[in-house]
Amino acid sequence: MQMSPETAAPPIARGTADKAAPRPSGGQQIDRRSSRAKEKRRAQLIAWAFLAPVVVYLLVFYAFPLLRNLDMSLRDYSVRTFVDGSAPWVWFNNYVAVITSPTFGPALLNTAVFTLVSIVFQFSIGLALAVFFYRSFRLSGVLRALFLVPWLLPLLVSASTWSWMLNSDSGVINSFLNAVGLPSVNWLTSPHWALVAVLIANIWIGIPFNLVIMYSGLQNIPADVYEAASIDGANGWQRFWRITFPLLRPVSAITILLGLVYTLKVFDIIWIMTRGGPGSASTTFAIWAYQLGFGSTLPDFSPAAAVGNLLIVIAVVFGLIYIRVQRRMDLS
Question: What phi-psi label fits residue 128: left (phi over 0), alpha (psi between -120 and 50 degrees) or beta?
Answer without folding.
Answer: alpha
